[in-house]
Design goal:
The complex is a heterotrimer of chains A (about 650), B (about 230) and C (about 250). Chain B has nine helices and two strands; from the N terminus they run ααααααββααα. Chain B has about 230 residues and is mainly alpha-helical. Chain B has a two-stranded antiparallel ribbon with strand order 1-2. Chain C has eight helices and seven strands, in the order E-E-H-E-E-E-E-E-H-H-H-H-H-H-H. The chains are: A alpha/beta (about 650), B mainly alpha (about 230), C alpha+beta (about 250). Chains in contact: A-C, B-C. Bound molecules: flavin-adenine dinucleotide, protoporphyrin IX containing FE (HEM) (2 copies), iron/sulfur cluster, FE3-S4 cluster and FE2/S2 (inorganic) cluster.
Amino acid sequence: MNLDSQTPAGPMADKWTNYKRDMKLVNPANKRKYNIIVVGSGLAGASAAATLGELGYNVDCFCFQDSPRRAHSIAAQGGINAAKNYKNDGDSVHRLFYDTVKGGDFRAREANVHRLAEVSVNIIDQCVAQGVPFAREYGGLLDNRSFGGAQVSRTFYARGQTGQQLLLGAYSALNRQIDTGQVTMHTRSEMLDLVLIDGEARGIIVRNLVTGEITRHAAHAVILATGGYGNVWNLSTYARGSNVTAAWRAHRRGALFANPCYAQIHPTCIPVSGDYQSKLTLMSESLRNDGRVWVPKDQAISEKLRKKMMHPKEVAEEDRDYYLERKYPSFGNLAPRDISSRAAKEACDDGRGVAPTGLGVYLDFADAIERLGKAKVAERYGNLFDMYHEITGESAYETPMMIYPAIHYTMGGLWVDYNLMSNIPGLFVMGEANFSDHGANRLGASALMQGLADGYFVIPHTLGNYIGANNPKTVTTDAPEFDQVEKEVHERINKLLNIKGNRTVNSMHRELGQLMWDYCGMERRKEGLETVIGLIPKLREEFWNNVNVPGECDNLNQSLERAGRVADFLELGELIARDALNRAESCGGHFRGEYQTDDGEALRNDDDYAYVAAWEWMGENAAHLMHKEPLEYEEIKMQTRSYK
Amino acid sequence: MNKILSLATSTLGRKYIMGITGVGLVGFIVIHMLGNWQIFLGQDALNQYAVLLKSSDKVLWGFRLGLLAMIFLHIAAAVSLVIDNRKARPVGYTNESTVQASYASRTMKYSGVIILAFAIYHILHFTAKVTHPKYHEMKVPLDGVMVPDVYGMVIHGFSNPWISIFYIVSVGLLCMHLSHGVSSMFQSLGLMTRNNEGLLKLGAKGLSVVIFLGMSAVPVAVLLNIVN
Amino acid sequence: MNIKLKVWRENPGKENGHFETYEASGLNTEMSFLEMLDTVNENLSEEGKEPIAFDHDCREGICGMCSCVINGTPHGPDRGVATCQVYMRNFKDGETITIEPWRSTAFPLVRDLVVDRSAFERIQRAGGYVSVNTGAAPDANAIPIPKTAADQAFDAAACIGCGACVAACKNGSAMLFTAAKISQYALLPQGQAERDRRVLRMVAQMDEEGFGGCTNQYECEAVCPKQIGVEHIARMNRDFAVASIRDTIA
Ligand SMILES: Cc1cc2nc3c(=O)[nH]c(=O)nc-3n(C[C@H](O)[C@H](O)[C@H](O)COP(=O)(O)OP(=O)(O)OC[C@H]3O[C@@H](n4cnc5c(N)ncnc54)[C@H](O)[C@@H]3O)c2cc1C
Ligand code: HEM
Ligand code: HEM
Ligand code: SF4
Ligand code: F3S
Ligand code: FES
């Protein structure tokens, strides 16, 4: 299989313009003859469903929550990037493009990233027009901040709830289309499989989570916007419901899964407190603008702090190791996520961690309070400090915060070409669910940008082009292919319900997560990866023989929902490890212990690994087959990413 | 027409009716209280005032009809809202807890009904004089003309401690009704804001206390023989 | 710590509503309330019993999915938080905690502690938006908006659609939720064109869904995890009056 990215010819800056100029159009009268399925109502799904509805397509949109507004995008805090250059600090489309490619450690497809930077400016206009209450200055104009180690202020934000406000904007546009009847919304509905007819994606099988009813839905094209798969690691900053099922089912039907090992670990999360833990809460990165990260130089002191035999305030200045400031003088505490995360791990592995579990470092505001006064600090971070207090019962004004890295975002996902179409014709993938724009590492405030870019400004054109060029014929749900897939879905559900073993779904998820974190987390090594590749199939086998899923299928059954999702994680987990093992280099979120410079920096290998690894499902017990999409850089020349 | 009707009968429309009639009713109570104070200026003053009120039948009946209309609308809206709200929340919680809803706000319907009962008795008592038919004969000369002796009537009425107590209790309930009602009506009419909220809530309580004292003053004065 | 739970169990059409009591022992005070429920469910599953169904997703107070009435108060005793932000350290060892679903006719019960909030969806659809097509927007800074207006609009926009306001209101009224959306747009220039139509349609839909009327008891404001204030209800009332008058004259 050769992976054609379908990237348009011409100079980087003109590709998208040329593409739009030459693309096939669908005449308005015909649009209503086409049904489009959008799975997912997050930033990507909601914006796409709304826009396609506006254009006149018949859209069916699905989400597993009880409202599209509850998609995981709602949780995004920090902000969204756009090359508006309102601050006149030298930002531009090219600079945003450059930063994103470099931030992605030169493992992203240039053309996609450039398009992303181009449309970023329209996103802000669109959202403001919808009534999204972005932060403003007294003059009434939009405010910006510098975020995630960017040298320019290009991040638009709405207090600490940017994702919420952007999603509510997209949700309102979606509601408008539902109101006019262009979009039909299916909530509490989970896609359980994809239906192909003549090799084209033509429908999905869905379970109504309330009645348990299994329904068929046919369409001329299927769009997946189902988010990331970080919950493979069990503990993460993701919502509990975030899952890979939709994407994984499509993968098993032939869609390639690209770069699964690229996962981002966020440095500022609240540390684990016990094995009952269900999620890790992110503390906004903005805290690193004023907080100083440190651990004691001496393990003995850390020991005392862990046992609460000593208060951090009592640790003398000269006994403290502000390791980020020491290692990365120019960026200091603002060093990119992967770098700061790894540094924290090193400190803790060195026995200098300060949380009771040994896994935690200080984020200290004492100096900031000295410098700015408590009031100013409260004004900037008050709500975050409150949140921290709620969760830990500690006041960050009195004692330094404790933070530790946690799984936060997955750059990998289903492979798509420039049109955001997977290798299965008619199957499009958007947002975090695809692999396209962030390479090996995502910069802060760029996932919201990508989700909305894909949904508002890319898919309407590329999907139109697909329909215009191929005018796919109408299919109905009584096609034999639907019978077959629906049968398989039923069988799988019954199988899950009838194992009646004696392990709970949660315990198995926890076990998988622990394995993934230990052997395929922040630092990966050959032996570890081989170990976990050996262990996961055993775990999977135990799952299918010994899990216990109580209840029936014909009503709300949350154990059944989780069981299906965990079953898919158990397959994806292995693939992640295999991808990580294959990629014998360190880049972005993927750090292989064997490949680092003398001073512990990631060592990329552009000669052998400047490609996208796209994995093909070869059947239940067969090994995945890897396909390569080589990455050529015409616009930006590859260089080592240095933040020293 | 039916458009206006549907707007008026919507939940918000009915709240506006409650609010507007509320304003009217409160206005009446205040004026009525001031009127009642004439009693402290002596027999003639009060009777004079009573005569003045009834000097023109048109004015009098116009006023009475207006008042009746307000009470009717107020009750109609109240009752229909209460019914709807019951339907909207048929079952509560096993240990229903209340965070900040005031007692008065939760008992408006009950205090209201009692006020109604009182008002009816009250009118039968002093206006229709059904309960005390002999009030009809009570007449005194005022500037040579014989006029109804409202003064005597009130004195006689309240010298019965049970009647006085009943009046005072009822007025108390009315004031509880108002302690929430008077600020509530501003909220209903959309006139309450973060800035005036405190003031309005305080004002409402203040006004109800004044009304309570002002109204009760009469029966108390009679019982204590301050006026006789 | 150990606690006793009184939990509402119901499976419409299969199992009538009733309270079940459970003992939860060996809990950690650092646990969140939902993690406590997880543990209870974990034990139930191990005994092959069906776990307690409850809604949750983000577990950080922003998605609006979680919805438990804890000891008679929606989202529990402490203010300005959602159920998922309640922590066990706020309860006494040995305490009995009663957990019930949102109670309101417009929120039919789905199972155990899960209710159907789709009535909120229909209210939003009846005008909770600004009609602007993708791509039709002017430059973002073309419309300057006073910071204060933007901030007030944000306060209203912070609503997470959890429904606690309805659950707490003794009239089962959805005024706070509806007002929050109407108010957000009423405060912004973008919302002006559709201002009248929006308030009239959304209020009509709210009534149609069978929510109660407001008697200004202010319980909603007290339990709202985003502390949205009742001044937004006043603003909605005002807008409704103005719109009604304009609508009937014009
Ligand atoms: C705590 C946190 C903070 C973040 N902060 C930022 C930030 O400041 N800036 C930034 O740019 N990015 C941030 N991110 C990342 C960003 O929020 C996400 O990457 C992005 O929102 C993903 O959007 P999405 O539309 O692709 O998917 P999601 O928002 O995850 O939506 C997934 C949708 O798919 C549906 N779905 C999933 N599976 C199925 C199925 N099987 N059947 C039916 N429906 C299904 C879900 O119901 C949901 O509607 C943050 C992420 C987290 C976790
Ligand atoms: C006669 C029988 C009465 C009944 C059954 C009654 C009932 C009610 C009820 C149920 C409310 C709604 C509570 C609310 O919306 O806040 C209310 C409000 C009110 N009532 Fe009454 N009431 C009665 C008489 C009166 C009288 C005599 C007065 C004044 C002297 C009065 C003044 C008010 C006011 C000011 C309000 C607030 C209106 C609002 O909230 O918009 N009521 N009443
Ligand atoms: C203790 C206090 C009160 C006293 C002394 C008092 C006295 C009177 C008197 C003497 C009259 C007859 C006037 C006349 O016929 O010339 C009257 C009429 C009336 N009062 Fe009161 N009253 C009191 C409280 C109230 C209250 C609390 C209400 C309202 C709930 C009320 C409502 C009325 C009404 C509706 C009338 C009839 C007015 C009319 O003639 O149409 N009164 N009152
Ligand atoms: S107003 Fe408050 S309580 Fe009501 S839905 Fe919104 S957030 Fe929840
Ligand atoms: S509690 Fe209910 S009565 Fe009104 S103010 Fe809130 S809706
Ligand atoms: S689970 Fe999302 S708000 Fe509580």
